[in-house]
Amino acid sequence: MTPYKQQKSVKYYLRNPKTKIVTAPSLLPASLQNDTELYGRVSKLCMLREAVRERLKAQSKTEDLSRIGTVISAIETYLGELHWYISFYEDNREAFKELRGVEFIWKSAIVSRMYEGVNLTRPRFGFRSGNAGDSDGGNNGASGGNSGNAAANSSAGTSSAASRMIARSFKQRRTQSPSIYVELGFTLLSLAVTKSMSAYSKVSSLDTEIECETINAMTPGTQAVLDEEGEQGVEALKRASVELREAAGVFQYIIDHVLPQISTIRLGVPDLTPDIQYMLQMLSLADSDRLSVRVWLRTDKNQRKTPNIPANLLLGIQERYLNASSLVRTLQNGEFRSVSSDIQNYMRDGQIVILAQAMIYLAQVHSDNQKYGNAVGFMRDARELLNDVKKRNQSVHAKTAEMLLRGPIEPLYSLYRRNNDTIGFEQVPSSEDLRARLPSGRALISRALQYSPASIPSSGT
């Protein structure tokens, strides 16, 4: 059997949001612009924001994640000042009523461009407006109201062909809003996405990590060739798991502290909606659990004797992927059709591959218990699932499916069939019967790590 050398390239399923320039005069009402200390601090905030914008723009042009740490650092530094600014704004709402002209423009991490117009309201900074918005990406001004929230510009629609676009043709859809809370939400979303990207950069690919361990665990005597050998590799996996849990904590902060502030706003993109935030949090924790499975497989010397443990863990993880897929389907029709194909394919094929891996372990469980017909059935179904994914060449999971099929699947399938033909003489259950017998997956091991805004000293104003 050919040893499998771990892939170096990384393909993350989300794009990072991108944004446009904001200037200091647009963030302060005229009555406060004579305060030089305050104006200086707001100018610094805009400078930090520009650093974030440039780094997000540069990162969006490459799949090389070697400098993703600098993006995280820039976002975290800007967030510290942004939290201060929001606190100042909340303490001086009366003064900010006169503010005009600010627009925070962001490109979605979730959806592609859409062209079917939808009428949405557009308020000015921090306040709700009854005026109809212009088309997506416009810069028309807005007039007042007096709510503490703000809304965004118009939505749009597209044909279902958009959902089939590959990653390089994905055109990020733009939205804009004068709401500072929308700005906070997209900045936090950028932080969570970059933390997830950083986690991916440490382990190359979540799928092939588990796949390598599957080869080692399921085919005694066969060693996959790994770049992350020994204790150092385990520590890298643990650090990546922590970053995914940190990302989950940021998503939770958005849910708890940002979404209530923009609940009356309807943006033309679904990024800052409860369904999407819960979905992204669920995927972050599920992927963290996938790394936990890998750590367990590397460190537990008895793992070959207890294949039911990884089977149940993987079944629990694939259930989270199914739940995430169902959350996507709750989006409005226009938004769902425009969700990036990378996201939809990642969840669909990821769930299939993880289920197939769980079935490989279940086949071993049944073989060890001399239930040879079930062992053959589970391995048969795993082969079929992986072959389906392998045929989708553009899927990020296709290589994993191919490696699994080239690795432990065929020799084990032949072994289980031979045992059943010569020892067991059992009927092989149908796929429907086996699905009905799948045990319940274990609950998620990983828990979100709480995100706490940095404490920034006041400006003295």
From TrEMBL:
Domain of life: Eukaryota
InterPro entries: BRO1_dom, BRO1_sf, pH-resp_palC
Originating species: Coemansia spiralis
Protein name listed in UniProt: pH-response regulator protein palC
Similarity-based family: Belongs to the palC family.
Coiled-coil residue spans: none
Gly residues bias locations: 135-147
Transmembrane segments: none
Entries under Pfam families matching the protein: BRO1
Region spans: Disordered: 130-156
Any one GO BP annotation for this protein: cellular response to pH
